[in-house]
Write a structure and sequence with these properties.
single chain; 362 residues; alpha/beta; six-stranded mixed β-sheet; 12 strands; 33% helix; 15% strand; globular; disordered C terminus; UBC
Length: 362
Amino acid sequence: MEKDRVLAVLLDLDGTLLDTERATKNILKEFLAKYGKVPDAEKEESRLGQMHKEAAAAIVKDYDLPLSADEFSEAIMPMYQEKWPQAKALPGVNRLIRHLRKHGVPLALASNSIRRHIETKISHQKGWKESFSIILGVDDVKHGKPSPDIFLEAAKRLGIDSSACLVIEDSLVGVRAAKASGAKVVAVPSLQHQDEHYSIANFVLHSLLEFQPELWGLPAFEDWVQNALPIEPLYARDLLGELFPHDGFAVAKITEDCASYEFVPDQVCGVFFGWAKLEIHGIFKVVLGRICLDILKDKWSPALQIRTVLLSIQALLSAPNPDDPLSDNIAKHWKTNEAEAVETGDVIIEFLSIWDLRAMCK
């Protein structure tokens, strides 16, 4: 689609590239507890994507705190900064950044955080800083999001009209800012249950693993192995639901009531296969299915959804970090056994074609 061809990609940071919300999710709860207050989930969700200064003033007012907005910021910001190094790249982010950089696509980072905080956050992510031609914070423009200023300024500094830019955002505040700038917008909602509110975006994805550059005139990804996509290891603990056998596989469901469900990003939605470790069974191959109810709505095609999220995970086990020697051995196994990964993927596709999707959502 030539009319949709883009010349540059503008990216938000928090919740889009970096899972800072999850890394810092309990900070406000801990802070408010000192004053005998409990966070209001609905109000806090509405603040996603807001400038810190704006959110701070609202929090002080909403919870009737005996502090000024500046005093609140001074007290809570060190607590957030302590957690930033723990924030991980969201699914598909490193893959996308490497791909666009490899093909010379101009990249800009445009965040409602101040520049100093942006620099700190991305300093913990290998290769990120040098991948962006432009890095802009809210202190670089007159008005933050939902004003379009930051995206207009990013496009201006790149020397590209905003209408030829693609913005990738996770928050409604950011999506509105991007649309107001005249750019095309792909939304990857941090909160999956809010998908219906993102209708103004050109596309709404569950994760950046579903992003298709070719739809925008950009080079297509080259890493698919038939119907399987090798990705970076995904580490999780205690996430297996009910186990049952199927043609030699140990099949499980990631369910909403799993005790540690919160450790998996909301964007992890679909069908996965890799390894899990249980004390009773040891390490074994598993299929993990988490199908969001949204794919059963008219706007989603279940078949396409399954195709785009069928991923071969190099390691899915309770290892504490990527340097674990066991996970390294598993990664080498997948690298030298791509044919097996593809064969496994074909079996899963056949299996899912006769599986009642609604049963997976219960």
